[in-house]
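Lab channel / #folding
Pinned by the channel admin:
"Please post every new chain as: sequence first, then the structure tokens as a reply. Keep commentary short and put observations after the output so the thread stays searchable."

First post following the new format, from NK:
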Amino acid sequence: MISFSSSSQRVSRASTMASASASLSSFLLPLRTARSPPRISSSTLRFSPNERKYEYGTRICVCRASYVGFRDLDADDFRHPLDKQNTLLLRAIPGLSELGKAFLGTISEQVMLLENIGTSILVAENQLPELHKMMVESANILNIESPDLYVRQNPVPNAYTLAVSGRKPFVVVHTSLVELLTRRELQAVLAHELGHLKCDHGVWLTFANILTMGAYTVPGVGGFIARNFEEQLFRWLRAAELTCDRAALLVVQDPKVVISVLMKLSGGCPSLSDQLNVDAFLEQARSYDKASSSPIGWYIRNAQTRQLSHPLPVLRAREIDEWSRSQEYQSLLRRAIQLNSLR
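Reply from TO:
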């Protein structure tokens, strides 16, 4: 699974194999695995309890006209370079995308559809309408069809999607999510999940996962090849998360909102949320870079992160801050504004 979970977990090879056939993509903090290919996992978000005291239009306007929509946005327009490079390699194999969507769409989607309908609340215009508006607006901004959105009772703050733009795409949000994030922060996480759907990460990362597991069966050098594949797959997983952080920024159009999500998932709680400082968290990220710049620091940093499915939160914060000031992001905004002005 691709995830944004706040707890480190070790994943067995058996569970990795199971996840290869049903990849869930999410906004969690780093997962660490034992010597086995990474799972494709789920995503974590939350609402601030203080926000519940306000009506939706007072804190932010869910459908405000000031958001810039990206009418011709393609997934490759915002992919992280490593994510784009690896996706292009697999995309060159004829029929692979269609095969993945057919397999994951017909089997996994049906399983998850029954699970979601049976255990969650389906968000709609007449059921949690503000959440519905938020999802529709986010999908419109990213130029993607709005998936079904479900709210599930769960004490672990999380959100996830089967990262395949199949016949019945969906996003699931846990109720505990509501307890930490503001509404704009929640929208950032919904956009992160939409980024996984737009990029079809479930398709490409599932096949990469299968190739990695298959390498272990090669006699002799199979273990060496598989370990190399495994390390590359972890790098791809981390790059895919950075891609979807960019999708979050494209929707909320304020890097501090995305960084605030990462900060709260690192060490936030409802009682402390109004005391957290985004600028201080970015300074913490710079401190981490400085502390790991020496040869010993670099070695320790590499050892800490090489088997994580997600980049460290401080590194994600620094990455999205830098991308928000990049020519690439500014060009996307300018192009969108020009296209919208022609409407």
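NK: The chain has one domain: 13-341.
TO: also worth noting, Residues 1-23, 33-65 have pLDDT under 50 and may be disordered.
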